[in-house]
């Protein structure tokens, strides 16, 4: 899918030439309780922790077949092909445990919350001229962002990508229905 599309107002909007619709897993992750310590601690110490946090994200997500789309301070967005879903979801669970442990080593009592959804996204190089970078856009991204529970939370669509054995590691939460990892 490339070229132009129409906005709700009828205006024409150019899409990137590499824009395509794909079904992907989308994961939002962010550290909770970050404001409690980052506003009172030294900026260099916080930045040092973030560097380690980013390295942990790459170590777990990329090794399992996922791709980090962006990192924003204490949060990030990653995507993965559905055929790698189980590996990436369990890598995200390990990332959450390890991030908490590394935070503790810095003296920070933090939790990594992870929301995962699967569905269609527009993927491509978005951004201002000469500043384009890979990104994903669409309802699937918005759903993942709003799952909003503590811990690792899967939408029903993400849960369905798991094997029966892997599904046993999650508990059903409702309403709305989500699935939380049982460490």
Write a brief structural summary.
Helices cover 34% and strands 36% of the residues. The chain is an alpha+beta fold.
Any chance you could write out the topology, listing elements then pairs?
Layout (H helix, E strand, L loop, with lengths): L2 E4 L5 E4 L4 E13 L1 H5 L4 H21 L3 E6 L2 E7 L3 H21 L5 E16 L6 E5 L1 H8 L5 E3 L1 H4 L4 H4 L2 E4 L4 E4 L2
Parallel strand pairs: 6-8
Antiparallel strand pairs: 1-2, 3-5, 3-6, 4-5, 6-7, 8-10, 9-10
How would you characterize this protein structure?
The protein is α+β, with helices and mostly antiparallel strands and 183 residues long. It has one domain: Alpha-Beta Plaits. Helices cover 34% and strands 36% of the residues. It is globular and about 50 Å long. The protein starts with a strand and ends with a strand.
Which structural traits does this protein have?
183 residues; alpha+beta; Alpha-Beta Plaits; eight-stranded mixed beta sheet; two-stranded antiparallel ribbon; 10 strands; globular
What is the CATH homology-level superfamily? Nucleotide cyclase, GGDEF domain
Order of helices and strands: EEEHHEEHEEHEHHEE
What is the number of helical segments per DSSP (H or I, 4+ residues)?
A: 6
Structural class: alpha+beta
Fraction in helix: 25-40%
Tell me the quaternary state: single chain
What's the CATH class label?
Alpha Beta
CATH architecture classification: 2-Layer Sandwich
Q: On the 0-100 scale, what is the average pLDDT? A: 90
Low-confidence stretches: none
Number of strands: 10
Distance between the termini: 41 Å
Classify the beta-strand content into a percent band.
35-45%
Computed over alpha carbons, the radius of gyration is 17 Å
CATH topology: Alpha-Beta Plaits
In the residues, how many domains can be counted? 1
- Largest sheet, strands/sense/barrel: 8 strands, mixed
Which descriptor suits the 3D outline?
Answer: globular
